[in-house]
């Protein structure tokens, strides 16, 4: 019932905005509780013959209701809260004076004023009302010292009932206001948690969609890449079958020297079959690592081997899409690099994303420049005193200075609509950062871009 009444007083515009309405509900609840306590206090005023106090409580209750209806019709919240606290600050000094000055139960309300202000206006407003409360109490003290302590305007024979009821009523009012605040806060925290869970789930879906989109671009290239070692396996298998027939023939002739020579050739063929079979297996493994979820386990890897695998997959995937492109790439790897501890699936995604961007950049420039332009991507690795470094340099269109700070932002992309989600570099940045590394960018428009990835050790 109370919740429905609270909802009634929330302005229609605020309900339609879709914003969090917790502060509005608390504000309305405080005004409602204040109105109810004022009206309930009238009975006590009648009981102890405090007519002026009863009239004042009635006026306060009516003012609170007027503020509530005005707020529902669109009165600004800060104005409504200011009016409520102002009538609060005017009413209670009057009630305290009518009840006998600073020794009356009404003085407890001076401590309630800044607390209510904090709930409905925030801590800055509460500081202001703490000062106001102090001045009001000081004002009553000065009046008492100047004119003497006022005579209580109620039946003093019922003083104990009055004091007990007033203090109890004040405490119950404070309790109800704090209860409303706590319930509102708990509900807000629950909503935030639910939204966070939904956000995390959406983020995971977007990340997986980005991975699958990247995998789709690589599929044709992967098929082409796998075909090469499979051709070798098939060819050497056929040759090995012929060699076996020759061995059988030479055995029948008793020519064991020739048998020995042929078996040496057969051994070499089997070694090559094994080599190219492992090569195909490595390609499939790389494809699976790119598509599946990371298990979060770090492994010791040779970054040269991983980079070479990724550049080949990226290149063939790009050539499958742009068959007539003249893009080339070169490798400049430092030999005998120390192994690094990384999550292979994650670094695989980073490298393929950076390579894809580099091939796209040089191809994009080749469409608008002279025929003599040679689109080229260079990948280099190097060991420094405290890091392993991978640099990816392209001679593409470059990155304008005004967007360099934006390229790692989620969903920011310079590609046309439908050709990029803008998640790739954002995820890459997060992955490298999670590995304790960093990414640097050096770029000049129409000169090229260099991405440098550092893995510190």
Keywords:
two-stranded antiparallel sheet; five-stranded mixed sheet; Heat Shock Protein 90; alpha+beta; rod-shaped; 457 residues
Question: Describe it for me?
Answer:
There is one protein chain. The chain is of the alpha+beta class. Among the domains are: 2-154, no CATH class; 296-456, Histidine kinase-like ATPase, C-terminal domain (Heat Shock Protein 90, 2-Layer Sandwich). Helices cover 67% and strands 9% of the residues. The strands form 2 sheets. Strands 2-4-5-7-6 form a 5-stranded mixed beta sheet, with helices on one face. Strands 1-3 form a two-stranded antiparallel sheet. A hairpin with a 3-residue loop joins strand 4 (376-383) and strand 5 (387-394). Helix 3 (22-47) packs antiparallel against helix 8 (159-253), helix 5 runs antiparallel to helix 6 (108-121) and helix 10 (303-321) crosses helix 11 (344-366). The longest helix is centred in the middle third of the chain and has 95 residues, at 159-253.
Q: Summed up, what is this model?
A:
The protein is of the alpha+beta class and 457 residues long. It has helices at 2-9, 12-17, 22-47, 51-72, 77-98, 108-121, 123-147, 159-253, 256-291, 303-321, 344-366, 424-434, and strands at 299-301, 328-332, 340-342, 376-383, 387-394, 438-444, 448-456. The chain is built from 12 helices and 7 strands.
Number of strands: 7
CATH superfamily heading of the domain at 296-456: Histidine kinase-like ATPase, C-terminal domain
CATH class of the domain at 296-456: Alpha Beta
Q: Distance N terminus to C terminus?
A: 63 Å
Structural class: alpha+beta
Instruction: Give the H and E element order.
Output: HHHHHHHHHEHEEHEEHEE
Overall geometric form: rod-shaped
User: Roughly how much helix do the residues carry, as a percent range?
Assistant: 55-70%
